[in-house]
């Protein structure tokens, strides 16, 4: 990460900064309330780095759930990250050792940013992508540690605050919608998810994997159309 890539990448990550500090603080607070010291918040955020997975992890740790249950629920909840990594392999070509970190760091919000932004003229594309991913990760670690430390000092009811993660992703999704005129993947994802939710029900998130299978299959079929010349709304892309 150099100064040029940092200057170019930082403005794109500001929405994630605001969101990750907020939801990271909530995660750290919840972990502290479950009886864990702030060091564990830092370790989990560095090595796991999955917002929804870490929220789930707090409950699993608090309940002393069996390892097999923890592995299964984590797989179901974060299965989408496998798709994220596969879809970015071509974009990450030539990044050397950084490629593994880029795949590891593909949270929902980072993936949304990387899928929609382009490196400014004069900025190395690979450095730009890596800086975005690293900044987002640092924001999450900082929020988690701040929340865990605050949780030691102050006790509050955090019920419902975790919706901040959903709200953050919706903001980024709206920006993606506005910056690209091709909305077929959005409709495909919404229709497939709704259909699987009605068929399989919401229990334990069991509708997620079949919904992702439908989305991936649909995107493969639509690939020739989606990889044509980029269609932008009138007035250009996102500002």
Described by strand count, sense and barrel closure, the largest sheet is:
none
Average pLDDT value?
Answer: 81
Number of domains: 2
Shape type: globular
| Class derived from helix and strand content | mainly alpha
Low-confidence segments: 231-239
> Span from first to last CA?
23 Å
- Please bin the fraction of helical residues: over 70%
How much strand? under 5%
Number of strands: 0
**Radius of gyration from the CA trace?**
19 Å
How would you spell out the order of helices and strands?
HHHHHHHHHHH
Q: Tally the helices: what do you get?
A: 11
What's the helix and strand layout?
Blueprint: H1 3-33, H2 38-47, H3 51-62, H4 67-78, H5 80-87, H6 98-104, H7 108-116, H8 125-153, H9 163-179, H10 184-200, H11 208-226
Helix pairs in contact: 1-3, 1-8, 1-9, 2-8, 3-4, 7-9, 10-11
Overview of the structural elements:
The protein is mainly alpha-helical and 239 residues long. The protein folds into two domains: 3-179, no CATH class; 180-232, no CATH class. Helix content is 72%, strand content 0%. Helix 3 (51-62) packs antiparallel against helix 4 (67-78) and helix 10 packs antiparallel against helix 11. The two termini are 23 Å apart.
Q: Which descriptors would you attach to this protein?
A:
239 residues, mainly alpha, 11 helices
